[in-house]
Structures are given as C-alpha cells and as structure tokens.
Design goal:
Bound molecules: guanosine-5'-monophosphate
Radius of gyration: 18 Å
Helix content: 40-55%
Number of helices: 8
Length: about 200
Amino acid sequence: MKKGLLIVISGPAGSGKGTVNSILLQSPEFSYSVSATTRAPRPGEVDGVNYHFITKEDFESRIQNGEMLEYTSYCGNYYGTPLREAIEVMESGRNLILEIEVEGAQNVKRLYPEAVLIMLLPPSFAVQEARLRGRGTETEEKICERLNRTREELPLVGQYDYVVYNRDGGAEQCADDIRAIVRAEQNATRRHSDAAVAYFKA
Ligand code: 5GP
C-alpha cells in the first residue's frame, strides 16, 4: 500500500487553521494526530481530542524517551507530535495533517524532506488582529504574545512549499486549494521514481 503524505499546515493565530482542517478531516483520505501540550485547556477543549493535555514533567520524559516526532516551545508551553500515532496514520495510507507552528514545521522538513509544508495566512496582519480579538478566547497578554510571534514567524514563509490565503468566509476555498495541492503532490514525478519499472512489470 502507498504510504500517506505528511502535510504540515501552519498559520498564525487567527488564520482559521482549525476550521480549514476540520473541513479536510471530513474526508477519509485525511487524518490527524492529536498533539501533546503543557498549556491549559481552553473552555470547550477536550483531553485526547483537541490535545493530550499533560504536565511539563511528563512532556520532558516523552522527549527523553524519543516518543516525539517533533516538539517546540511556543509562548511558554511545550507542544509536540507523538511519533507512534503519526507513523500509524501514514502506514495506513491516509494523508497525515500536522497543524503545527513554524519551528516544528522546519524540524519536520529536516527529518522528512518529502513532507509538504503549507502556510495558511489571513489576508493581512490587521485582519488577523481583528479576528483574534473577535474570537475572545485569549487574554490581552496572550493576544499580544501571539501577534508578536507572528512578526517573528512570517519572514520564514519562504521555507514553505505553498501559501494559501484565508480570505473572509473562505475556509471552504482554502480546503479546496489544499486538496488540489495534495492531488498535485501525489502525482509529482519525484514520488514515482519507480514508474518505469512498475509499468513494464504490470
Ligand atoms: P494553540 O495554543 O493556539 O492551540 O497552539 C499554538 C500553536 O502551537 C499553533 O501555532 C499550533 O499550530 C501549534 N501546535 C499545536 N500542536 C503542535 C505540535 O504538536 N507541534 C508544534 N511544533 N506546534 C504545535
């Protein structure tokens, strides 16, 4: 069976990653792995669904034991992708979506150069700020922290393979764009280096 693709989707806070990913995940060809984090759950977030909410000690022991595919520290908390879950999804032939920030994305690309890196962006910084404040899930301090983080991360957008803009109400359009990217990547010649051999064998 052909292994699934590893698709990294990053985007600044307020870019709509969650909404776009939940549209993609309605299709059985995509799956995701639940990340672990040391941050506190937001109202409505469920342990084991949104994240595995664990302690700093637990997180650090998982790093020591090589249980993380990648991890990072973001705005004072650890976030990481459990290795076993990620491998299981790809081995099953489904495309794995990792919704992670820029540093984690760079680590993934180093480890798995065949990963596809997609940056989801609001139309502008001003729109991002308005969306983040409108969401009302974070304190002013957390909002400023996330906006500052965006200033650091955005210049690294050139390290991504694709940029997708989330214009107002455009989550469906973004999901379509991402499905098109995945379709093209599945047909890229570098992923079919055995095409000639397989052709004559069949
Ligand atoms: P939030 O606290 O808003 O849920 O997530 C903060 C940031 O951490 C987001 O940019 C999100 O994509 C990123 N993130 C979530 N899970 C992971 C992970 O497993 N690894 C890395 N590197 N980043 C993550």
